[in-house]
Amino acid sequence: MLRSVFGAAEPELSPLDPEVAAQTAAVRAAIDPSRLRRSLETLPAPRTRLLNPEAMAAADTLILDAFRSAGWPAELRAFEEPGSDGAGGAPDLAPALRLSGVNVVAIKNGESRDAVVVVAHHDTVPDTGGADDNGSGVVALLELARLLGSLRLRRSVVLAAVDHEELGFWGARRLVRELSAERGVVGAFVFEMLAYTDSTPGSQKLPKGIGAVYRDQVRKVRARDFRGDFTAVIYRQSSRPLATCFAEGLNLLAGPAATILLRAPSDLPVIGPLLARTLPFVRDFARSDHVPFWEAGLPAVQITDTANFRNPHYHRPSDTPEMLDYDRLADVIAAAAVAVERVASR
User: Fold this and answer.
1) What is the CATH number of domain 2-345?
2) Predicted model pTM
């Protein structure tokens, strides 16, 4: 009874319709993991607008050109925001007055202006290789552009590489404001570190105290000897259909243990507000660009390999392309592509 009231139990996933299952397998077959690695290796790093403006400008152009080459109308959207408070672990970069950034935005208009949005930040922290965080998300965006480029969909699709995630989600905040003024947002998929896996027992760490709330999910990780080879999907109740749609596809491709779904603790009925005030691990569910969507009341999910709870190269120079699992990245992209198409076709 308590688990049903708290709402922390993992949602049950349905088997995919045979037609959707076949589509998912076909999309995966069209993705070459070696191409993903080559794409990632072209991204300059580190990428910080304040310290590496040339690298960021090169990344902007690379992403813009890739979107356009895939047939998407795309543009650079420059913005300025109030100075950051140093969120994201880089307080020394907090500017005194205004923070300038660039979002790279591609839009495929559908029959409706209502849009499905896919986001990945393309900035890094200083002095890091930036491959998993978040080159993996950027490469996924570019591959989605290729996979979805020829489709005609009922709803519009927005792909956006956003800036200044590491300083407090400023690019995503601007994107949310702009899109909310331009069109309805029916849901957002946020890519945040997608491609680091480790099948060694004990390679997956968990935040202290998480087992008190997420018993099913922790039991699932424990049953596999804490191997760091699953993809976490963080959602709110409003975005549960997005989370399950993606997870059903990834489980088909990578096996039934490939995903773990976690409803944000602050969103849990009855105990959510109390958890947000008392348990430190709640902050780990609000560390990326899904947060501005939630703050605006929009459905969004974060898709992640759990970052520092698994990847020893997190925010280090050693976060380089050779450390990543491109087969898993291809699986994630295929599942996301089919999920976006399903949601945009409804």
Assistant:
1) 3.40.630.10
2) 0.93
**Which segments of the chain does DSSP mark as H helices, in order?**
2-6, 18-29, 33-41, 53-69, 136-148, 170-182, 215-223, 240-254, 272-278, 290-295, 326-345
C-alpha 300/C-alpha 261 separation (Å) is 13
Q: pLDDT per residue over 160-197, tens digit each? A: 999 999 999 999 999 999 999 999 999 999 999 999 99
In the chain, DSSP finds a helix count (H) and a strand count (E) of 11, 8
At residue 273, the 3 state secondary structure works out as: helix
Whole-angstrom CA distances from 296 to 81, 120, 183, 236 are 17, 18, 14, 13
The model's pLDDT over 58-91, given as tens digits with 9 standing for 90+, comes to: 999 999 999 999 999 999 999 998 755 444 444 4
For residues 133 and 122, the answer to whether their CB atoms sit within 8 Å is: no
CA 224 to chain centre: 24
Question: Any idea where the domains of the chain sit in the sequence?
Answer: 2-345
**Secondary structure (DSSP) of 277-310:** HH-GGGGGGSSSTHHHHHHTT--EEEEE--GGGT
**Cβ-Cβ contacts under 8 Å for 230 (sequence gap 6 or more):** 204, 221, 224, 257, 258, 259, 260
With 0-12 / 13-18 / 19 or more C-beta atoms within 10 angstroms meaning exposed / middle / buried, residue 131 is buried
**Alpha-carbon distance 290 to 247, whole Å?**
17
Q: What is the pLDDT of residues 52-66, one digit of tens each?
A: 999 999 999 999 999
